[in-house]
């Protein structure tokens, strides 16, 4: 029995190692090809204040993200993920579409077209902060093509580590729920985008009720298909859940794209729907203090991608933000350019009998 379990442990970690190696090569090559096709403007007059990363620091951070992910799979926290060969034709189609679009993204970057998404059909009913071409991506959050292209764009940007970095949040949640009976647990991936993390969440907690939520109808459809899970189209500012109705929430790469004035309101809204003792696993960009050697990359990000609220995110007091909403920091983890935080909603103290 013990030997069998040991074999499964080795096999799964081995499988994840293989997949990580494949992803590293696939998405690094795709990123290089995209830069070749788009010929990004490098001469933009930009005076960096931070020094370039010390030799090897970027590679070290990148490899660490894969290493932590493989270790967590080996430890049985979540299953090996992202089967790459499931549909090779589709994988090639997605890459060629991404490469074709890379020139348009570069043209938008050069003309500083960060708000062109306002002209998309139906966009006028969404909040102004939402009607932007974050990362200069074609269609903003409004088109099905954008939703299909999102995951290749993110993976190429991070040379294949996006999934592994996001799963730092899954790692914290899986540790917190290790001894819990999953049946009856209800967890929502907020701002689930096109569904990659939602798929991982569902894989890690197959007996729980797992769903996604996103404001974009196009991304909602894509996430449903990718994760094969229910996805609600709604604004995180007004969550369609009753008070204290969820055991867990996850939220990945949203907060750096929110205007700073909205962050406290949204933190309070998430706290509202969590049960006392319920948890929020958050993942977002690291801040300069988390990865001082990589500070140049963080400085370059909003300069070369359309990220209007990123600088304020780099200064955000994250434990303070959620602490004010009644969520206490339990644990954090960092991998390459992503940090994960686990927060727990304070239990209601019962007053003693009088
Ligand atoms: C950078 S993407 C992150 C997607 C995904 N969580 C991931 O890990 O890649 C931001 C997502 O947040 C969604 N979003 C932004 N503002 C929102 C809001 N007010 N309510 C719900 N979703 C929102 C967008 O539609 C988009 O899918």
Mind explaining what this structure looks like?
Strands 3-2-1-4-5-7-6 form a seven-stranded mixed beta sheet, with helices on both faces. Residues 1-10 have low confidence and may be disordered. The chain is an alpha/beta fold and 354 residues long. The protein has eleven helices and seven strands. The chain folds into two domains: 2-38 and 53-157, no CATH class; 162-345, Rossmann fold. Strand 1, helix 6 and strand 2 (209-214) form a beta-alpha-beta unit. It is globular, with a radius of gyration of 20 Å. The chain has helices at residues 2-38, 57-74, 88-110, 144-157, 162-176, 196-204, 217-227, 263-273, 295-304, 310-315, 318-324, and strands at 186-190, 209-214, 231-233, 246-252, 274-285, 327-335, 338-345. The structure holds S-adenosylmethionine. S-adenosylmethionine binds at residues 130, 141, 154, 166, 191-193, 197, 214-216, 219, 235-237, 252-254, 257.
